[in-house]
Amino acid sequence: MRKPLLAGNWKMNTVLQESVQLAEALNKLVGDVNDRDILVCPPFTAINSVAEALRNSVIMVGGQDLFWEEKGAFTGQVSPKMLKSVGASYVIIGHSERRQFFAETDETVNKKLCAALANNLHPIICVGEMLAERENNTTLKVIEKQIKGGLKGLAVGDAQRITVAYEPVWAIGTGKTATPEQAQEVHAFIRKLLVEMFDKPTAEIIRILYGGSVTPDNIKVLMAQADIDGGLVGGASLKADSFAKLVKY
Ligand code: PEP
């Protein structure tokens, strides 16, 4: 049985004080929840303070990206060790906004994934098709390429430490959610790919989150699907009460 994971991606929102206030408010509302995992991913600038604010909390903290090198002349980049040193235990990799605006590819996703795992961070690997790809009926082909490229060369033991997030790009921040059936079709396809690439027990362990305009109103029907193991949530994670409702679906 996979434990659900509800993850909030705050993106480039919340300055330091707002981040801490949001974390504290959320902690008051969900601090007693233990039958599901809860994660918040603030901007880099707030991870340390949010982790401090959540020091004795069930809520975990993660980064929204990382760079694969350990250290050196890479202006503006953040290494896995830096993330860990400020209290992150998870990291989002390959979010569609990074693919769209910051030239992220399956190859860079793969390098980041390996670096995260080597440093004992739990990576959340994002995949998802664009609207035109869904309309062309190439969704599953796109997902297969992203999964096979992103997870290339991964050992079974390492695969068991990853999380996958299916986020149709047309559903992110648009208010358009995939129907539970559309999401389940892709989640089941991803699980099948994971069986082929690794083995069945491994594929059964890996959590596959859905992301794309998840709200307190639609989380329950999404979570009722056999292969949906949680949510990666943008907009609805920026208000403590809506994220708390969603966590307690
Ligand atoms: C996301 O940030 O990954 C996301 C799915 O955003 P939203 O929930 O706002 O669509």
From TrEMBL:
<feature type="active site" description="Proton acceptor">
    <location>
        <position position="167"/>
    </location>
</feature>
<dbReference type="GO" id="GO:0046166">
    <property type="term" value="P:glyceraldehyde-3-phosphate biosynthetic process"/>
</dbReference>
<dbReference type="InterPro" id="IPR000652">
    <property type="entry name" value="Triosephosphate_isomerase"/>
</dbReference>
<keyword id="KW-0324">Glycolysis</keyword>
<comment type="pathway">
    <text>Carbohydrate degradation; glycolysis; D-glyceraldehyde 3-phosphate from glycerone phosphate: step 1/1.</text>
</comment>
<dbReference type="GO" id="GO:0004807">
    <property type="term" value="F:triose-phosphate isomerase activity"/>
</dbReference>
<dbReference type="GO" id="GO:0006096">
    <property type="term" value="P:glycolytic process"/>
</dbReference>
<comment type="pathway">
    <text>Carbohydrate biosynthesis; gluconeogenesis.</text>
</comment>
<keyword id="KW-0963">Cytoplasm</keyword>
<feature type="binding site">
    <location>
        <position position="213"/>
    </location>
    <ligand>
        <name>substrate</name>
    </ligand>
</feature>
<feature type="binding site">
    <location>
        <begin position="9"/>
        <end position="11"/>
    </location>
    <ligand>
        <name>substrate</name>
    </ligand>
</feature>
<dbReference type="InterPro" id="IPR022896">
    <property type="entry name" value="TrioseP_Isoase_bac/euk"/>
</dbReference>
<dbReference type="InterPro" id="IPR013785">
    <property type="entry name" value="Aldolase_TIM"/>
</dbReference>
<dbReference type="InterPro" id="IPR020861">
    <property type="entry name" value="Triosephosphate_isomerase_AS"/>
</dbReference>
<dbReference type="GO" id="GO:0019563">
    <property type="term" value="P:glycerol catabolic process"/>
</dbReference>
<dbReference type="Pfam" id="PF00121">
    <property type="entry name" value="TIM"/>
</dbReference>
<dbReference type="InterPro" id="IPR035990">
    <property type="entry name" value="TIM_sf"/>
</dbReference>
<keyword id="KW-0312">Gluconeogenesis</keyword>
<dbReference type="GO" id="GO:0006094">
    <property type="term" value="P:gluconeogenesis"/>
</dbReference>
<comment type="function">
    <text>Involved in the gluconeogenesis. Catalyzes stereospecifically the conversion of dihydroxyacetone phosphate (DHAP) to D-glyceraldehyde-3-phosphate (G3P).</text>
</comment>
<protein>
    <recommendedName>
        <fullName>Triosephosphate isomerase</fullName>
        <ecNumber>5.3.1.1</ecNumber>
    </recommendedName>
</protein>
<comment type="subunit">
    <text>Homodimer.</text>
</comment>
<feature type="binding site">
    <location>
        <position position="173"/>
    </location>
    <ligand>
        <name>substrate</name>
    </ligand>
</feature>
<dbReference type="GO" id="GO:0005829">
    <property type="term" value="C:cytosol"/>
</dbReference>
<keyword id="KW-0413">Isomerase</keyword>
<feature type="active site" description="Electrophile">
    <location>
        <position position="95"/>
    </location>
</feature>
<comment type="similarity">
    <text>Belongs to the triosephosphate isomerase family.</text>
</comment>
<feature type="binding site">
    <location>
        <begin position="234"/>
        <end position="235"/>
    </location>
    <ligand>
        <name>substrate</name>
    </ligand>
</feature>
